[in-house]
Design brief:
This protein has 779 residues and is an alpha+beta fold. 58% of the residues lie in helices and 15% in strands. It has 23 helices and 21 strands. The strands form six sheets. Strands 5, 6, 7, 8, 11 and 12 form a six-stranded antiparallel β-sheet that branches. Helix 8 packs antiparallel against helix 16, helix 17 runs antiparallel to helix 21 and helix 18 runs parallel beside helix 20. The chain is globular and about 100 Å long. The C terminus is likely disordered.
Amino acid sequence: MKRSRPRSRAHSLRGRALVALLVMAAAVTIALTMPVRLGLDLRGGTQIVLETKSTKTTKADREATDRTVEVLRGRIDALGVAEPTIVRSGDNRVVVELPGVQDPQQAADVLGRTAQLTVHPVLGTAEGAGADTEAAEGEKGERILPDEEGLRLRLEAPTLTGEDVKGADARFDQQSGAGWQVTVDFEDAGGDRWAKVTGEAACHPAGDPRRRVAIVLDNKIISSPQVDPSVACGAGIAGGTTQITGSFSDAEARELALLIKGGALPVPVETIEQRTIGATLGDEAISAGAWAAVIGTALTALFIIVVYRLMGALATVALLCYGLISYAALAAVGATLTLPGLAGFVLAIGMAVDANVLVFERAREEQAARTRPSTRSSLTAGFRSAFSAIADSNVTTLIAAALLFFLASGPVKGFGVTLGIGVLASMVSALVITRVLAEFAASRPAVFRRPHITGISTTGPVRDALLRRDPFLMRRPRRWLAASALVMVAAGSGILVRGLDFGIEFTGGRLIEYSTTTQVDADRARDALADAGFPRVVVQSSGDGDLTVRTEELTDAEAETVTRTIGELGGETEKLRDELIGPSLGEELRKDALLALGLALAAQLLYLAVRFRLLFGTAAVSALAHDVVILVGVFAWLGKPIDGVFLAALLTVIGYSVNDSVVLFDRIRELLAGKDRKASFARLTNRAILQTLPRTVNTGMGAVLILASLAVLADDSLTDFALALLIGVGVGTYSSVFTASPLAIEMYDRGAGARPARRKGRGTEKPVPASRAERQEVS
């Protein structure tokens, strides 16, 4: 038996090493062959200007154009274009900016199609010379259109429209050999009308044109199938589903499905302009952000190596592998990388330190608790003990990422993709790659003889200081709750007193386009306008040397200042366009994001209630709400903009705060099932805080070093991003210890009926029985 254990460990190590090699080989292959698409802020892209047109029944006003924007956003999401910019310009124009589009003309064609879907009974063929597009409708709304083979059909007024459609998918029919087809699902009422129109058509004999049903898209018959002979007269095709067949290619079927599913445009649109645009950020800003990321990552790696020595160096190698895996995954899913996304990606490297720190701190505890420890056995025990905390914290984050991806749209959906990839790559890095490297190093004779170089042979100065003093931080939990409430009210009052300064993405603003006699560099224009009092202005090169300036709403005097500033740089200046633009983060997108975020928090609460206890889940989500209010309130007091960059920072803070609380509650759960479970709940919570505090400090330092580098060295746009995350990391660390924990104690005391004991000052000393489920989870 003694020989089999080392042999089993060797097999396990070889298996993990093989998995790690396969993952890294795949990541390297993808990274070398599939480049990541860069966003509008880093590279620019294609700009398409659409103009809405009035019809007999609908006027192309501002309201109709806003509805058009939302339909176009759905089509762009279906096309797979990430991080686009879509804004209303004036009352009847839509400006669409697409990063990294392979075929701009195809994108323009898809966006420009009205996609008015209608279903018509066929009255027969049109005899004689009729119009080959549309006959005079007359009182009954009849029309004449050619079918797929050119035969003109007389069509009755439409029985169904696109509003009756629930969804559409492109599928390949292998059984019948019909090739690609589009399956259309109708709403309940639409399904009944479909059954009625097919039932009436079935009353005519086979081969009669009246047995056909015409499906029309944008005034063109795309399919006019005959009702199958098996369908009885008057019965129709029930079930609310039909198939559109034809000689579709893969791309044509998918395009048709997305047009039908995305819905019809409320008014027709016409493409009036299409051109290439430059990056919204200058080369200097991109370079500064890149250098800040490199320096911050290097400082984080140095910190981990100083604290954990050899194990820290191996963890740094694993973190580099994490970066490569994440990059390859982003490339594989076709994600678009923006500058805030790049900063978040670098921050994720700092956050990925957390799993390694959890393992190493548990290994230190195991090393100190054993009489004749070895580095490898302590590491094995550390990985085993830390697994539940790593799994629970990552699962809660994955739940949020999945809901953001499936329910939200636009940049919030993109954030869900990046977040999910980061979490999965972090688990592979920590639980596979770090473990392989660490166990291999620990098994070397040189390391076995010198355990001090591993970095886990001692408990560390932070843990030693806490063990010596053993402070009872949770003696008076209500005082901590009062302090948290006071800070939250002080910060949150800024929302009421100062209000929120929403950025141009939320409020819209003004778009001015200039043509100058001397070509003006976008970087110079951006700096000059910032000096003139417009620090948030977005300047892009467009077309053949023109400049586009996008900023918040301006007075006439401010607009004149902008024009004069551009004229000083480019000589004689002509204003080509001056229009008010709508928000790029429209009302529908904001509603989707809030719905996805609310459901994500509810799902996290449910998961934590199942894995821990309901009071733990409630405490964690309450601490999260506390962090969000403080962060938003501080930005309100500082007068900082609430824009798309801040939204990304806020979502990151939410994930960080929940992770901190989960790690702490996992340790409380373990203590509840241990030999000290007869101690009071407050004592156990306090012990859990002291035991996890070294991990909290080291993980926080890893994130702070990167964020400080971004705040000091990066461009102004990233400075606000870094500031928001610095505040969020600090508040999240505080709230997990001094908000979530005291709240859990208070909720437990009330739930356990300990209020009478509290009047005597002993309410927090009530013993805590461990449930059978809790004992099973830890064993």
